[in-house]
Design goal:
The protein is mainly alpha-helical and 86 residues long. It contains three helices and two strands; from the N terminus they run βαααβ. It has a two-stranded antiparallel ribbon with strand order 1-2. The longest helix is centred in the C-terminal third of the chain and has 22 residues, at 54-75.
Length: 86
């Protein structure tokens, strides 16, 4: 969404982007060995663990639930934006 730019700006998120992320999460949940390649963890302050463990997988499941809610809002005419924050 931000093309690698982490500037705390607000960025429009389209349905296709959300659906692509959900599919990627599902691929990793189906085959955990793809985690590092498809959705690598990031080290740093506030990022949490870098392990590909049950917490990581739980975050992917939660991400899919959030995407489902967000796409339902898009269907209702809402716009979805993402804003990074340090």
């Amino acid at each position: 969404v931000q093309d690698g730019e982490d500037n705390c700006g607000q960025y429009y998120v389209g349905r296709d982007q959300l659906e692509d992320l959900a599919k990627t999460c599902q691929k990793v949940l189906a085959d955990h060995s793809k985690a590092e390649e498809l959705l690598p963890t990031g080290a740093g302050f506030f990022f949490g663990s870098t392990d590909y463990d049950e917490w990581y997988l739980g975050d992917l499941e939660e991400t899919i639930k959030i995407i489902d809610r967000a796409t339902a809002l898009i269907d209702e005419g809402w716009d979805i934006t993402y804003q990074s924050s340090w």
